[in-house]
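Now read the record:
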Amino acid sequence: MKFGYFPGCSLHSTGAEYDISFRAICSHLGIEIEEMKDWICCGTTAAHINSNLLAAALPMKNLVDAEKQGFTELAVPCTACHSRFKRSVYETSHDEKLKADVEEVIGSACTDKVVSRNPLEILDCEEQLDKIRNASIVNMNGLKVACYYGCVLTRPPKIMQFDECEYPMSMDHILRATGMETLDWNCKTDCCGASLSLTRTDVVLKLTKEILEDAKAVGADALAVACSMCHVNADTRQEEINAEFKTDFDIPVLYFTQLLGLAFGMKAEDLALNRHLVDPIPVLKSKGVLK
């Protein structure tokens, strides 16, 4: 199984833990990924709030380049990048004028031949779940995790066409394959505030507090995430939330790929666990996941 790999800007910076752990578990499971050459920013929120043309052209340029490099499927861990790729293909397929404008901007015909795949989509199939079961050598039974998907990964459903929009289960399936307990809870797809973290921190603090509150209420030892923006807000804002709302949150927030790596017996340093602001090591040791 081979995929082109589009890390996007965040996995080369604030989301480096996701990049490191995703590469590690792919290697362990025999999934070959090759990073695209000369990829560019997908545009994320900054483009689409300013120009629909720019928002469609930037991801399409990457998809066209991926096709030229021989890839038919791209592994795209960043939820924002994945969303922009799916939306660009959908919009240029349904709007002839936009398609013509994008082709003029990028100097090439649009493509629908390259499919963007989120890691959850890649791993939530029987073949990979069997591999995960067989590769899991650490007892994860004592760890209770709330799987937090965020608001973008499954929405809008007509474009993303992935999992159950309001109550997805792919991450749960993957982590349960290790023997880990994942919990039923209310905030799986609630918004954390995303990039409002920079302009309306008060909104992010309120929204993230509600997510952490519900995870704590159901007894979660940790949050599992598949989005670098969700990780940033949930991990880095807990101290501010505690000061603002007189709460006492101290909930580790881990990428689901880091949890898989731990189940496979990988070392904490090889999964970049030291990069988190809420230190996950004490909880992981108390649950027998780490020695």
